[in-house]
Amino acid sequence: MMFDLAFIWAGLIAFAVLAYVILDGFDLGVGILFPFMRSEADKDLAMNTVAPVWDGNETWLVLGGGGLFAVFPLAYAVVMPALYVPIIVMLLALVFRGVAFEFRWRTKDGKFLWDLSFFGGSLVATLAQGVALGALVQGISVEGRAYAGGNWDWLTPFSLLTGVALVAGYALMGATWLVMKTDGPVRSVAQRIAIWTGGMTLALVGLVSLITPFLNPLYLDRWFGFPNALFTVLVPAAILAAAFVFIKGLREQRDSWPFLATITLFALSFIGLGISFYPYMVPPSLTIWDVAAPDESLWFLLVGALVLVPMILTYTAYAYWVFRGKVDPAGGYH
Asked: Structure pTM?
């Protein structure tokens, strides 16, 4: 066959997940930082930075989850029972967060409850995403093309570590987003938080990266076998370069640099994760080709994706272009 449809779809799903992590990561991060905002005006300003784009960002979650169900049904059937609890918790937290986003503008007496829901929903959704990621990385028990583990296999010290690491990472992304999008007190608070969360994120990413190769012989061989060992050297160098840009941007008041450096850190981490996983969709048992739907289904869905994905990219890019620049506390952009 001229095209490896399963491989193409694995790339599309991976792109959708990365787009979600980057785009929804910073607005979840803004929610995590909500308690650090000093006044109601500061909270309103922080929320206004993500108001035009937050719901569109979650399109990628729908695309990634729906695509996994349609294109890799066996992976969906195995992963969902294994990660049922963290995924349900994540979805419920996102619901609370979305409702709070709309309702806090329409009440005065109960506004603090919606503020708490916005913060709690953002924090719990992020923690659940990180725990689910850690559980997937450490491996899922499969027997006879079905999940063979227990109800609580997802809850381990490593999955909790990845959950905390993702909370720190999203908080960093939210802080750098606020540095880029605001002026005044909110920017000052976000800049200080970015320094602390930046150090925490680098330390936690480093710790997770050190532990991961020893979870599975596949990962160990993938990272330290030749010629992949050459890439193992390049990744820390690229992360250090991103850290340099991050620090330089904060020191020289180049407000977009810390955010771009943080995105680079997430992208490098995601690429490293992909290298560890490939060719497995459900490590350590099921490959991309094991779990793929029939070629006829993949062709049919690919035609729709070739129309849908460019449309999503276009309206996303247009939205960010329209609402570019700093947010005025009065509610506008300049």
From this structure: 0.92
